[in-house]
Amino acid sequence: MIMFREFGKAAQGLWSLVIGLGITFRAFVRPQVTVHYPRATVDDANLQTFHGHVELVGKDDEPLVPRCISCGMCAMNCPSACLTVVKQKAPKPTPEEKKAMEEAEARGEKVKKPAAPKDPATFMYDFSLCSLCGTCVEICPVDSLRFSSNIYQAGFGRHDFNLDLLTRLREQGGEPRGAAVSTPISTSDPDQG
User: What ranges does the record give for the region Disordered, renumbered to this chain (predicted)?
Assistant: First the structure.
């Protein structure tokens, strides 16, 4: 009885070994997926599925102006706290406009104060903190964020990954997706981080 039990365990172990070798053999004969850079580069078809850092999307009619409406939903929902969005302030009225508003208030008329522009004053992104979860891209109500296809993101320190996305959008100048290189923000202390 004990002998049959030992033969059963040996047969089960041998079957497990055969299954493992089968998986290894299938992986061995499968075509290679790894690209050995710089001898070979990734073709554009593979870049469509690559998710690099987050970047702003320009308006359709004005590609240098972001679609962003400064609602801050991306920054509030980011689990890594890597986004900082600052709204623009309303423009101060000129002395003539201020005087006209005071006169209208004195007459009892309803005065409309100048509204702040919707696009952000600053849009900072710390790629060194980002987990690339995509929450900011999904939550944006106006689809103003997307993943870049920049596969050549490199730097010498953490400060090289503090990106000003407004500057990056302006430098892209309406170029196709992934064509521009990220612009790091210079810091006073390069060893910071």
Answer: 92-114, 174-193
